[in-house]
Request: fold
Amino acid sequence: MLFTDPTIVTGLVTDAEIAARSAVGIYVFSAQSVNEKLLSEAGFDVIHREDLTENMASMACRWHDAREQFRDDLVTDEGEATFEGVQRFLSTCHLLARERRLSRYAYLARG
Reply:
């Protein structure tokens, strides 16, 4: 099994940052060790774990900037509030990942 978790708390994160980071979906934030524990309890052995945090920071920044280039069209399509909310989400993703306070890990496990 291969899965990624973009909500590993690896530093101090404020309540406002958590709210902005979780504004576009349902997220469960946890310590890194929780995934390994749950995989083990489910009968899996973690074969490999890889830190993808830099990728998360880069992608969030590029996505934010690309959306900004098409601001007028996106605001027409999404509305101002949705556009600004997504931009805030992406900015927060970028900041937390760049500062390594929220990380993304990929897990390869065998059952």
The longest strand covers residues 102-110. Helices lie at 15-21, 32-41, 53-69, 71-78, 80-98.
